Structures are given as C-alpha cells and as structure tokens.
Amino acid sequence: MAGELLLSISKDEQERARYRSRRMFETDKISNELSVKYNEARRIARSMKKNGEPAEKIIMYTGLSVAEISKL
Predict the structure, then answer these.
(1) Are 16 and 42 in contact (CB under 8 A)?
(2) Which of 31, 52, 56, 60 has the CA that lies 20 to 30 A from 69?
(3) Is the pTM of this model over 0.70?
(4) Can you tell me the distance from the alpha carbon of 46 to that of 48, in angstroms, rounded to the nearest whole number?
C-alpha cells in the first residue's frame, strides 16, 4: 500500500509538490506549537522566579533547565 503510494507520487511532479507542501505545513505547525509551549513555560517560570519559588519547583512545573531558569 505505502509502496504503491510512494511509486505514484514519485512519478507525478505535481503530486510530489503537494506532498512536500503538506509535509512542510505539518512540520511548521509542530514547530509553532512547540515554540508557543516553550514561551509559555518561560513566562510561567519568570513569574514563579519573581515570586521567590525555588528552582526545583520551577523545573517541576515548567520542564525548563536550571540554565534556562537562571537566564530569566
């Protein structure tokens, strides 16, 4: 099944272009979602740090590293 699809895509330039476009869209979408989550974690960490929360707690809630937290 997958082999047939790959063979049909490889024969048709327009189909290859559509495939590449879909892959690029999905990759960009995932990248954007990760960026939003990272920025939100940084915002939360900045607020926690400002309120005197210990680094261990900030790490637990945000998943950021000690180095990332110290830069905030």
Answers:
(1) no
(2) 31
(3) no
(4) 6
Tell me how far apart the alpha carbons of residues 47 and 63 are, in angstroms, rounded to a whole number. 15
Residues 25 and 31: their CA atoms lie apart, in Å, by 10
Tracing tokens 């915002």 back to the chain, one arrives at 43
How does pLDDT run along the chain (72 residues), one tens digit per residue? 566 766 666 677 787 788 889 999 999 999 999 999 999 999 999 999 999 999 999 999 999 999 999 999
How many domains, the chain?
1
Q: Which two tokens stand for residue 2?
A: 């997958």
Q: How far apart are CA 42 and CA 3, in angstroms?
A: 44
